[in-house]
Amino acid sequence: MSRLLYHLWLSPFSRKVRVLLTEKGLPFELKVEKTWERRTEFLAMNPAGDVPVLVEPDGTTLTDSQVIAEWIDETQPAPSLIGPDPLQRAETRRLVQWFDGKFNIEVTENLVGERVMKRFLKLGEPHAPAIRAGLANIHYHLDYIGWLAERRTWLAGDDFSLADITAASHLSCIDYIGDVPWEQHDAAKDWYARVKSRPSFRAILADHIPGLSPPSHYADLDF
Amino acid sequence: MSRLLYHLWLSPFSRKVRVLLTEKGLPFELKVEKTWERRTEFLAMNPAGDVPVLVEPDGTTLTDSQVIAEWIDETQPAPSLIGPDPLQRAETRRLVQWFDGKFNIEVTENLVGERVMKRFLKLGEPHAPAIRAGLANIHYHLDYIGWLAERRTWLAGDDFSLADITAASHLSCIDYIGDVPWEQHDAAKDWYARVKSRPSFRAILADHIPGLSPPSHYADLDF
């Protein structure tokens, strides 16, 4: 039995685990889970009903992107993508939580959530004030990414880490629908170009959702 | 310099760290941070602007309750409150995320958020449909706690863990405003009675916010 990841194409949490597994050199298969259908067998694996869900080759089932990330870091320690010591690990986790928590609520949910997921989840029409909020909020987050990237090699410090993976996973979903104002944020754009050029990001850039094409710059390494 | 925790009285995330530090036998001082005032010095410590923030005796500053919990578990491993092996740790973290994520959005924010925090944060009047949603949602979460507690000694398994601390931290905030329907959920109530009787929970039960008294059963171990 091979490793299996239940996911959705524009779920940043699923993308985070896809990139992490690839950075760790762990092969896996992908299976789309239409979470809005609330399949009984899927809810038995994950009562929270969301993706990602990882089924390890021995059948061990794990849910929640950060639970999965900590599990992989503990069971497959090299290369460490959280960090070598408690202080570095705290900084990586702080930024992971920044993007999975604050950025997700202030930006991703307002843009990808309103424009795309709401349709799939049959939650009604996109809410224009939410989209406007997302388009406004993304600027200060891109400023923060730029601020970090100008002071550090990667977002959490000297090494590429789960912080970069998490930030890039959210941004790649938003970039897929053309909502990232790269032209106004050079430092963030330079950092994202470096993430895009990593082999672990290739599969993300090759994503192509039927009926929803990305803009031409989405997969372009020199965007 | 002693260990200092910036907190708010009805912040479940702050309570989680208070109980965790006490379970670990680590002394600390509490300082209320009125996060809605957005103090410059506080934002310099934590750009996210929320509590808890922990300042260690050597000045190391940590933010986000789960980042702090992982830091404490790594720097002060005994007794482990996440678990002895990766699989148990994944289950503890899954439940921590359940309560800090799902329960928080579906219940805590709708009840404590609407009835109390909205006033402090000057976000307007409580939203009646949100309160109704919180009062409806809490039932299935109490059922889930009861379901776990009937099958395991503690929520995540044989040992008292961060999962119990996290669930009880949220419930204690809601219990402070009298919104937990204990009488309809015996198994969850029995579990919470066991948490309440732990020495680490004494300070939580002694909380008394000026102008907002808890109901008489709040601190009662035999409620």
Automatic annotation (TrEMBL), chains A, B:
Domain GST C-terminal: 85-218
Domain GST N-terminal: 1-80
CDD domains: GST_C_family, GST_N_family
Name by which UniProt lists this protein: Glutathione S-transferase
